[in-house]
Structure formats: structure tokens, C-alpha cells
Amino acid sequence: TDLDNGRIERLRASNLLYDSDGAAEFTHCYTKTLPGGFFFEIVERRGGYRGYGAANAPIRLAAQARLARALAV
Questions:
Q1: How many other CB atoms sit within 10 Å of the CB of residue 49?
Q2: How many CB atoms lie within 10 A of CB 8?
Q3: List of long-range contacts for 46-54, beta carbons under 8 Å, 24+ apart
Q4: Interatomic CA distance for residues 8 and 14, integer angstroms
Q5: φ, ψ at 28 (rounded to 5°)
Q6: pLDDT digit string (tens) for 14-68?
Q7: pLDDT band for position 1 (50/70/90)?
Q8: Distance in angstroms (rounded) separating the CA atoms of residues 41 and 15
């Protein structure tokens, strides 16, 4: 990755997901899942990023499943 360790740590500490297509960047996060499976996604695109952070979808789904299991206990 082209990100320096300090930026990676700031993203991690803020629970932000990151994607890049080379010149452009995409930073995003999600709220906790609400009843009915509803959640909000907050995004920031820089440099003309046109995607939707698809590379991060498995990470988001795993995190939401982990939280749902924790709430069910």
C-alpha cells in the first residue's frame, strides 16, 4: 500500500475503510445495523474516485455479522 503507517493507524482508530484506484481515494464507514437490516454509509471521495468501495464489502459484512452475533447473546 502507498499509505504511511500513521495514516493507516488513524483510519483504523476511526473505524474507517479505505480504497484507492491509483490517483483517487475512497474513505467510508457504516453505522451499526438498525432493525430491519437498515444502516447508513458515510463516504468521502477524493480525486474523482468513481467506485463504491466494493473491495471492502466482505470486511463490512463480516463486521456486521460479528456485531449481530454479539447482540444476540
A1: 19
A2: 12
A3: 47/23, 48/23, 48/24, 49/19, 49/20, 49/21, 49/24, 49/25, 50/21, 50/24, 51/19, 51/21, 51/26, 52/26, 53/17, 53/19, 53/26, 53/28
A4: 10
A5: -155, 160
A6: 989 999 988 899 999 988 888 888 889 999 999 999 887 787 888 888 888 887 7
A7: low
A8: 12
- Give φ, ψ of 18 to 5 degrees: -140, 140
The answer to whether the CB of 47 falls within 8 A of the CB of 8 is no
Question: And the C-alpha cell for 24?
Answer: 483517487
CB 47 within 8 A of CB 25: yes
Residue ranges per domain, the chain?
5-72
Report the C-alpha gap between 55 and 73 in whole angstroms. Answer: 30
Tell me the C-alpha distance between 68 and 55, whole Å: 22
Q: What is the pTM of this model?
A: 0.73
